[in-house]
Amino acid sequence: MIIKTGYELPLILIVGILHTALLKKVLDTFLPAEDKSRLIWKLAFAGYYLLTTAAYHIFHISLFYEMCNLAGIIGVTCFYRGAWAKKIWISMVYFCLDTGTGLAVSFAGSETIRMQQSAISALLLLICTAVICHIPDPKESREKTLDKKQMFLLSAIPILSVTVFWEITYGSIGRLTAAFVCAVILILNLCVFYLYHILLKNYVRLREQDIYKQQTIAYQNQFELMKESQSRIRALRHDMKNHVLALEGLAKGSKTETLIAYLDSMQEFMQNPSEHIYTGNEALDSLLNFKLQRAQEELKKVETDVVLPEKMNLHSFDFNVIVGNLLDNAIAASVRTDEKYFKLSMRMENGVLFLFMVNSCSGIPEGICEIRRLSEKSSPEHGIGLSNVQRIVKKYHGDMEMHCKNNYMETEIMLYMKNL
């Protein structure tokens, strides 16, 4: 039986504040916050504080308290963005750290120390949180999510940890042995965060490699187009003398219609059917021709209207991320519809690049689309996702909007090219 002292309740209230602050710190490190008012955020964490503090004061460390704690942690994560697999994983790992610190102090300490075990366990949890938040992930990594298999493997350790906690709490195991097991579990759950960090770095590296690979293939495709166009020019130049004689004869004979038809056939011969875009900018032409060639092969109707200057201060990697991902997503959505329609329009006016894209789609509610929702639904092969496309647009002080109307998705982007 634990002896209660007069300062135990104030101590529990203070420790509850520390627990709530540590939970917020961990969630802010790994998840992007929802766009909600500050009052809602205060109410969410105040609810967690009241629930866990009351449960701990009444039931101390017990099954009911742990259930309330886990429910409160998961409830607070609902106010953050991100895939549910990632939310549940973070909730479970933090819950294991919280529970493990409490049990370790409870089993390791004497009866006297156990009266202050809430404060000691909170200090131990503070150390764990400091270690976790020291992981140097960039802020934009909060938007990224690993695939389901990786998240399942990461979740296996905290799930097994909960099972072990149950066994040592209600099983017949020595106190020192139980304390040692809790310490080992704490270390394992801390290692899970570092494992997540490593997997995330590899994920980002693979996505970047995929972008560069697509860029290389696009350049190769553009090179083949240039070779074919040069071959057509050489062929036309070889027969130019005969063409000039034929045109001269038609002009002298006043056969205007025949002359125009002959000129049209020469122009048609000069055109490369695989070259959909030609601006003179190799980075832009190679990417667009590569993507539009795929669109021509898979869709019924493809329209393009691209008028851009040859020289633009353009960062090819960022442009590849923006346009490449948008075209991939648009083509993938159009393929699943009966219309199979796609339109791309790009223009440059007063140093501002305007991009307008329309594609047929299905299963998307009408109105302005939340880009993060579409990003969570998009498949991994679509580059780094719409959320990172939006991040790059904001990086250059641009704007991006997507809205659906009559089963057609319209995407509008404005970029200030002076910053690119």
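(the above was protein one; protein two follows)
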Amino acid sequence: MSENKQPAQNGMSDNDHKKLGRELDLFTFSDTVGKGLPLFTPRGATVRRELERFIVDEEIRRGYLHVYTPNIAKLDLYKKSGHYPHYKDSMYAPIVIDDEEFMLRPMTCPHHFELYLSRPRSYRELPMRIAELAQLYRYEQSGELMGLQRVRTFCLADAHIVCSSEEQAVEEVGKALDLIEYVAGTFGLKMGKDYHYRLSLGDRANTEKYYKNDTAWEKAEDLLRKHLKSRKSGFVEAKDEAAFYGPKIDIQMKNVNGKEDTAFTVQYDFCMPDRFDLTCTSETGEKKRVFVVHRSSIGAIERIMAFLIEKYAGAFPVWLAPVQATILPVGEAHEAYATKVYEQLKKAGIRAEYVSAREGLGKRIGRAKTFKTPYLLVIGDKEKKAKKVTLETRTKKVGMRAVDQIISRIMKEITSRKDS
């Protein structure tokens, strides 16, 4: 995704998220913990937290109902949904508790459907957009694991939209794509350059992999195809890439090594409403079958972090940066004033870091630049006397500025999610 794709000496691109993850102290792996199970450092956890807050707030603003459901459920739930036979090889082995079999969940849709079934529903409540930041567990083969892009546990920004009609379902597909394009734009990703749409289709002959209902498949694929054309969105079609319960629109991205993965997805489901007997009361007071749209707005937090680390080459925009400003007193005589500046930034809500003068200034500046901190605030004799600081960004020296002016500048970039 990044413009710089030159390989490093060890054969790994300089912008490879696995390399940058170590250099920027964002995440690590431990053989003792287990393969494919990432450990996020405080710096990496900050990036992850900002992504999670961003998408939850945006989804709630757009009418999503955020919920919490368990990370484990009885195996019967996944047999009911049909996931167990279809995804058995990529699920963790059942856990026997009190003579019952449980599983770490590989997906959230069955949980959300059970929430929907907790009481009778009216068509007036629909569309109902049930959303969750859900921790999922899938047993990826060792050879498939790759940094944060493909792991064995991940947090998915998942949602299931229950609709009263096919027309409403198609409308919700469009709104889900609007959200995805907004998210991509916020990250500075451009359609056609950084990502593209793929219409993932089923295979009528493959009854082992796909739910058997040829008429429903034809209709659902045609609905998604027509919708993409109506948006004037370029897309490719891919046979045998659908979910077992219906076709989907995948948002495809490539990493710096050229490998393509699905980042976000919107799926049309004509299977689960039958399996779970999902209904609503119609205008005439009768029960009728609902329609379901599955969608992931920001994808797996781990995977989008991998893409963004490579996209920005580790130089995150201010709102995502683990440390947004580093305060650097030149010597001990400047530390009292530098501490006051640090407290001002912290009070304003800026993720500031104070580095005392126990080491040389050049060494401290070098370390901050290694971590690609957006702003450096240097304080010496002139700054102390003028009650100002000398500001430096990643790319240039700005000069001496008042502290309030710097706070205003940084806060503007944080709230707008755009660098100046």
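Reviewer note on protein two: Residues 166-186 form the longest helix (21 residues).
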